[in-house]
Amino acid sequence: MIKTSHSERTMRTAFFAGSFRPFTTGHASIVTRGLDIFDRIVVGVGVNSAKPDDRVHAEDAAQAIREVFAGDDRIEVVVYDCLTVDAAAAAGASALLRGVRSTRDFDYERDLADVNRQLSGIETVLLYSLPELAAVSSSIVRELASYGRDVDAFLPKPVHNQ
Q1: Helix (H) or strand (E) holding 128
Q2: What's this model's pTM, rounded to 2 decimal places?
């Protein structure tokens, strides 16, 4: 008889955190690919308390992400204004999910993963971006939009999984 461990019987949940202003095709790719590893992903939209009215912007970003993944009950979207590890714990996450586009991202994410592990014991799982999405970032999309450029190619379309 094969014994099933406790961790195999519980749902594996990851917490994918960011400001997501905007949520790009690169972000959507990490969430979608993360579902191959985790049973459930909670997308956490962070509030920057140093910016006035940022909660409103965070709620707007969260709603846009909900629309992208409408109908997929494996994905939940929350807004949070605490340490990411605390929000992850509140969401029942066993890991943080992060995307990496370059070696610059990797160095930053490694340091962050080490601190988060020291603070809470939570592990971080890194997924490399798909090559065709490696240059996509929220800041680039915001800048292009500020010059009136069409950014639709960099924004995910709603996926209705019914």
Answers
A1: strand 123-128
A2: 0.90
Average pLDDT in the chain: 92
With a CB cutoff of 8 Å and minimum separation 6, the contacts of 126 are 98, 99, 100, 106, 109, 113
Active site residues: 27, 51, 101, 138
Contact in structure between 50 and 19 (CB atoms under 8 Å): no
143: left (phi over 0), alpha (psi -120 to 50) or beta: alpha
The answer to whether the CB of 119 falls within 8 A of the CB of 6 is no
